[in-house]
Design brief:
Helix content is 62%, strand content 5%. It contains four helices and two strands; from the N terminus they run H-E-E-H-H-H. A two-stranded antiparallel ribbon has the order 1-2. A hairpin with a 6-residue loop joins strand 1 and strand 2. Helix 1 packs antiparallel against helix 2 and helix 3 packs across helix 4. The radius of gyration is 18 Å and the shape is elongated. The protein starts with a helix and ends in an 8-residue tail after the last helix.
Length: 130
């Protein structure tokens, strides 16, 4: 998954989290529950985070005779870049929100900050090496 896509997914997770919190505060949480893929059970929209992890984390093949140290090295090598990108996305979103907050701006909501950040990501502002 490309870096820009991960950053946009992180923004989606944060936006969904705000919607879920608002619904919970208003006593309307049932509106933010979707049926599972098989339609059998209700899954909170927060499952977006699980979906992101499943899509961006690679599968890891470990030889049956691998030592614990080898397993740890394989896991770190495989997961490191994906986790770094995801943490960078959350850090970027947090910093963007914190800058608006610390600047005392009341003319823009946190959702609007995240929307602006998504547009900046889409335009390539945060591409690696940019």
């Amino acid at each position: 998954m490309e870096r820009a896509e991960v950053l946009k997914r992180v923004i989606g997770i944060l936006t969904d989290a705000q919607d879920i919190r608002r619904a919970a505060e208003a006593g309307e949480l049932d509106e933010h529950v979707d049926a599972g893929e098989d339609g059998a059970g209700a899954v909170p929209t927060a499952g977006v985070a699980t979906l992101l992890l499943n899509e961006m984390l690679p599968s890891i093949r470990v030889p049956a005779d691998a030592s614990p140290q080898q397993v740890a090295a394989l896991v770190a090598e495989a997961l490191g870049p994906a986790l770094h990108t995801m943490v960078s996305g959350f850090s970027l979103a947090f910093t963007s929100l914190a800058m608006v907050h610390d600047g005392g701006r009341t003319d823009i909501s946190s959702i609007e900050v995240l929307q602006e950040l998504a547009l900046e990501i889409e335009s390539g502002t945060y591409d690696e090496g940019a």
